[in-house]
Amino acid sequence: WRSLRTNLSKYTCAFSDTPWPGDAPDFVGGSEVQQYLEDFASRHGLLDCLRTGCRTTHVERAGEGSGETAGSWTVTWETCQDGQKSSSSESFEFVIVATGIFSRPSIDMA
Protein backbone atom coordinates (compact mmCIF):
# COMPACT_ATOMS: atom_id res chain seq x y z
CA TRP A 1 0.00 0.00 0.00
CA ARG A 2 1.46 3.27 -1.04
CA SER A 3 -0.24 5.15 1.80
CA LEU A 4 0.85 2.67 4.52
CA ARG A 5 2.38 4.20 7.66
CA THR A 6 3.79 2.11 10.48
CA ASN A 7 2.10 2.30 13.86
CA LEU A 8 5.51 2.05 15.56
CA SER A 9 8.10 4.79 15.53
CA LYS A 10 11.41 4.43 13.76
CA TYR A 11 13.00 4.14 17.21
CA THR A 12 10.96 1.03 18.00
CA CYS A 13 11.29 -0.75 14.67
CA ALA A 14 14.99 -0.53 13.93
CA PHE A 15 17.79 -3.07 14.12
CA SER A 16 20.13 -2.26 17.01
CA ASP A 17 23.13 -1.92 14.67
CA THR A 18 21.26 -0.07 11.92
CA PRO A 19 19.53 3.15 12.94
CA TRP A 20 17.16 4.87 10.54
CA PRO A 21 18.58 7.82 8.59
CA GLY A 22 18.33 11.03 10.61
CA ASP A 23 15.90 12.61 8.16
CA ALA A 24 13.44 9.69 8.29
CA PRO A 25 10.04 10.66 9.75
CA ASP A 26 9.14 9.26 13.17
CA PHE A 27 6.49 7.02 11.59
CA VAL A 28 7.92 5.73 8.33
CA GLY A 29 5.94 4.63 5.30
CA GLY A 30 5.82 1.27 3.58
CA SER A 31 8.30 2.16 0.83
CA GLU A 32 10.76 3.46 3.44
CA VAL A 33 10.46 0.24 5.46
CA GLN A 34 11.05 -1.81 2.31
CA GLN A 35 14.15 0.23 1.43
CA TYR A 36 15.46 -0.03 5.01
CA LEU A 37 15.06 -3.84 5.00
CA GLU A 38 16.57 -4.22 1.53
CA ASP A 39 19.58 -2.08 2.53
CA PHE A 40 20.03 -4.12 5.72
CA ALA A 41 19.82 -7.45 3.84
CA SER A 42 22.23 -6.24 1.18
CA ARG A 43 24.75 -4.90 3.71
CA HIS A 44 24.73 -8.22 5.62
CA GLY A 45 24.82 -10.52 2.56
CA LEU A 46 21.32 -11.89 3.13
CA LEU A 47 19.65 -11.24 -0.23
CA ASP A 48 20.41 -14.74 -1.55
CA CYS A 49 18.74 -16.22 1.55
CA LEU A 50 15.42 -14.44 1.00
CA ARG A 51 12.43 -15.48 -1.05
CA THR A 52 10.02 -12.68 -1.83
CA GLY A 53 6.59 -12.89 -3.40
CA CYS A 54 5.86 -16.14 -1.57
CA ARG A 55 3.13 -17.25 0.79
CA THR A 56 4.16 -19.72 3.50
CA THR A 57 1.60 -22.51 3.59
CA HIS A 58 3.08 -25.00 6.06
CA VAL A 59 5.86 -25.27 8.64
CA GLU A 60 6.60 -28.65 10.17
CA ARG A 61 9.26 -30.13 12.41
CA ALA A 62 11.22 -32.69 10.35
CA GLY A 63 12.24 -36.20 11.40
CA GLU A 64 13.79 -36.99 14.74
CA GLY A 65 16.86 -39.10 15.33
CA SER A 66 20.00 -38.79 13.24
CA GLY A 67 20.62 -37.83 9.67
CA GLU A 68 20.70 -34.70 7.60
CA THR A 69 17.14 -33.52 8.38
CA ALA A 70 17.06 -34.50 12.08
CA GLY A 71 15.88 -31.57 14.18
CA SER A 72 15.25 -29.38 11.15
CA TRP A 73 12.10 -27.73 9.88
CA THR A 74 10.38 -28.27 6.56
CA VAL A 75 8.88 -25.07 5.17
CA THR A 76 6.42 -25.17 2.28
CA TRP A 77 5.53 -22.07 0.32
CA GLU A 78 3.52 -21.08 -2.70
CA THR A 79 4.41 -18.70 -5.49
CA CYS A 80 2.24 -17.35 -8.26
CA GLN A 81 3.75 -16.32 -11.56
CA ASP A 82 1.73 -15.46 -14.66
CA GLY A 83 -1.39 -16.80 -12.92
CA GLN A 84 0.23 -20.19 -12.30
CA LYS A 85 0.66 -21.35 -8.70
CA SER A 86 3.54 -23.58 -7.74
CA SER A 87 4.54 -25.08 -4.42
CA SER A 88 8.06 -25.65 -3.08
CA SER A 89 9.50 -27.09 0.14
CA GLU A 90 12.90 -26.86 1.75
CA SER A 91 14.49 -27.90 5.05
CA PHE A 92 15.96 -25.33 7.42
CA GLU A 93 17.86 -25.64 10.69
CA PHE A 94 15.88 -22.79 12.28
CA VAL A 95 12.58 -21.02 11.70
CA ILE A 96 11.67 -17.54 12.90
CA VAL A 97 8.04 -16.50 13.01
CA ALA A 98 7.94 -12.72 13.36
CA THR A 99 4.43 -11.76 14.43
CA GLY A 100 5.08 -8.41 16.07
CA ILE A 101 6.20 -6.89 19.36
CA PHE A 102 2.87 -7.37 21.12
CA SER A 103 2.82 -11.16 20.72
CA ARG A 104 3.92 -13.52 23.45
CA PRO A 105 6.82 -15.69 22.16
CA SER A 106 6.49 -19.45 22.04
CA ILE A 107 9.84 -21.12 21.60
CA ASP A 108 10.11 -24.81 20.73
CA MET A 109 13.41 -25.91 22.20
CA ALA A 110 12.84 -29.62 21.50
Topology readout:
Elements: H1 30-43, E1 54-61, E2 73-81, E3 84-92
Antiparallel strand pairs: 1-2, 2-3
How many helices in DSSP terms?
1
- The end-to-end distance, rounded to whole angstroms, is 39 Å
Strand order of the largest sheet: 1-2-3
Q: What Rg is obtained from the alpha carbons, in whole angstroms?
A: 17 Å
**How much helical structure, as a percent, in the residues?**
10-25%
Unreliable runs: none
- Round the mean pLDDT to the nearest integer and report it: 83
Strands, count: 3
Largest sheet, in brief, is: 3 strands, antiparallel
Q: Any idea what the shape is?
A: globular
**Classification by helices and strands:** alpha+beta
Run of helices and strands: HEEE
Beta strand %: 15-25%
Structure description:
The chain has about 110 residues and is of the alpha+beta class. Helix content is about 15%, strand content about 25%. It is built from one helix and three strands, in the order αβββ. Strands 1-2-3 form a three-stranded antiparallel sheet, with no helix packed on it. The longest helix has 14 residues. The chain is globular and about 50 Å long. The model has no long low-confidence stretch (mean pLDDT about 85).
Briefly characterize the structure.
By secondary structure, this protein is an alpha+beta fold.
